[in-house]
Amino acid sequence: MILDPGALVVLIGPAGSGKSTFARRVPASWRVCLDDLREMVSGDAADQSATPVAVRVQGLVLEERLARGLTTLVDSTNLEGHVRRSLLARARYWQRTPLAVLFEAPVEVCLHRAARRQRQVPPEVIRAQHRRLPLPGDLRAEGFAEVHPMHLTDSEEVPT
User: Fold this and answer.
1) Domains of the chain
2) What one-character DSSP code corresponds to residue 133?
3) What is the pTM (predicted TM-score) of this model?
4) CA distances from 37 to 52, 53, 110 (A)
């Protein structure tokens, strides 16, 4: 995957699908992670009550990075259409190329990976997230310039 300078890379997938593993393989300065921001504002990455503040901080960071033409990777589930529309609107405003990386790991794999984590996501939440996984064609129709499906063995690939 070759990125245009200043691209907005949106990771999309349920908990345990490999998003954060993938994100750790790109420069740390590219990564805007909602879990990290929740932890920053509340001391706990799993504290969902901190999400509204974390989302506002994420928005500020995204605006600054896109305005400066810096490649930015959004590491969160991004399974809700309104969240993706907001990200796409920012990319359009700043004339940045929006790319989607779609993590299509089977639900059983997501459940297995999530069970091994210190921070637990309930299985019913992961199943619900997995059901909301968009199709590549839907993401292209939303406005993503490119959609890169990632499968279990693909997470070694790193954007350059």
Assistant:
1) 8-154 (3.40.50.300)
2) P
3) 0.89
4) 10, 9, 23
Per-residue model confidence as pLDDT tens digits over 85-135: 999 999 999 999 999 999 999 999 999 888 887 777 899 999 999 999 999
89 Ramachandran zone, left/alpha/beta (phi>0; psi -120 to 50): alpha
Mind giving me the DSSP string for 42-95? HS-TT-GGGHHHHHHHHHHHHHHHHHTT--EEEES---SHHHHHHHHHHHHHTT
Structure tokens at 159: 């954007």
In angstroms, the CA 49 to CA 53 distance is 9
Q: Helix (H, G, I), strand (E, B), or coil: what is residue 124?
A: helix
CA distance to 47, 77, 83, 97, 159, per residue, from 5 (Å): 34, 23, 23, 9, 12
Give the separation between CA 9 and CA 2, rounded to whole angstroms: 11
How long, in residues, is the chain? Answer: 160
19 forms bridges with which residues in the sheet? none
Nearest to 13 by CA among 83, 63, 76: 76
Cβ–Cβ < 8 Å for 14, 126? yes
